[in-house]
TrEMBL record:
It comes from Pseudoruegeria aquimaris. Keywords: Hydrolase. Coiled coil: none annotated. Residues 49-125 form the Thioesterase domain. The lineage of its organism: Bacteria, Pseudomonadati, Pseudomonadota, Alphaproteobacteria, Rhodobacterales. This is Thioesterase superfamily protein. Pfam families: 4HBT. It comes from the Bacteria. One of its GO terms (molecular function) is acyl-CoA hydrolase activity.
Amino acid sequence: MPIVMDAEALNGFLHGVFEQVADDFIVESVTEEALTVRLRVSDKHLRPGGTISGPSMFGLADVAVYLAVLSKIGPQALAVTTNAGLDFLRKPAAGVDLIATCRLLKLGKVLAVGDVLIHSEGQPEPVARANMTYSIPPRKG
């Protein structure tokens, strides 16, 4: 399926619809095969011990799949997560952003399934892996 929304359009969508988190995430690239999004890590994303919190990594994975779906279907603010799984593989590097790469494994009329690998910036080994299913609202008209 061709790209309907590129990185610029997706970043603009986040700022228009999800202003409360838009400054945390930036879509870096969108291709036919994958979407890459960055979590700008700040103190609010850290847990005791100085590592990035699980909820922050979950949020990054969730946003990555959401945006990957929108990159293919256009601005559908009401697409929602219906299932999620997250494996924490290793401790993220301190003081660097997290980068998520999402591949859509299935994009149907009502469901989309995505796979996400999360890396600490500059590190080759993933820190987490997620799989998520999204429900796509019916198209009007």
